[in-house]
Amino acid sequence: MKISVNGESTSLDTPLSITQLLKTLDVEMPDMVSVQLNGEFLDRENFSSTMVKEGDEVDFLYFMGGGR
User: Fold this and answer.
1) Angstrom distance (rounded) from CA 41 to CA 6
2) What is the DSSP string of 26-54?
3) Residues with Cβ < 8 Å from 27, sequence gap 6 or more?
4) What is the pLDDT of residue 29?
5) Structural contact between residues 42 and 18, judged by C-beta atoms closer than 8 angstroms
6) What are the start-end ranges of the E strands in the chain?
7) Are 10 and 56 in contact (CB under 8 A)?
8) Rounded alpha-carbon distances, angstroms, from residue 42 to 26, 37, 66
9) Whole-number Å distance between alpha carbons of 49 and 35
10) Is 66 left (phi over 0), alpha (psi -120 to 50) or beta?
C-alpha cells in the first residue's frame, strides 16, 4: 500500500493506525506532533482508531512557539 508522508511516497505492508504509523516511522516526539490526514487535522484521541488507506496523505507537524 502506498501513502504519502510529509510529501514523500511511503510503502506499507499492512494498513496501520496513525498511532502505529508514528511508531513504525519512529517519529520524533510523538506526544508533541500534530497529524493532518488528507488535509484535515486529527484529534489526538482518534490516532489509535484512524487507519491510513491506499493513497492517503499524512503530514506530521510540530508547532513551535517563540519570537518577539
Assistant:
1) 14
2) T-SSTTT-EEEETTEEPPGGGTTTPBP-T
3) 33, 60
4) 86
5) yes
6) 2-5, 8-11, 34-37, 40-41, 57-61
7) no
8) 19, 7, 24
9) 13
10) left
Q: Distance between CA 56 and CA 64 in Å, rounded?
A: 26
pLDDT digits (tens, 9 = 90+) for 16-62: 999 999 999 999 888 889 999 999 999 999 999 999 999 999 999 98
Question: What is the rounded CA–CA span in Å between residue 45 and residue 23?
Answer: 16
Contacts of 38 (CB under 8 A, 6+ apart): 56, 57
Least Cα distance to 25 among 1, 58, 50, 56 occurs for 58
Distance CA 12, CA 64 (A): 30
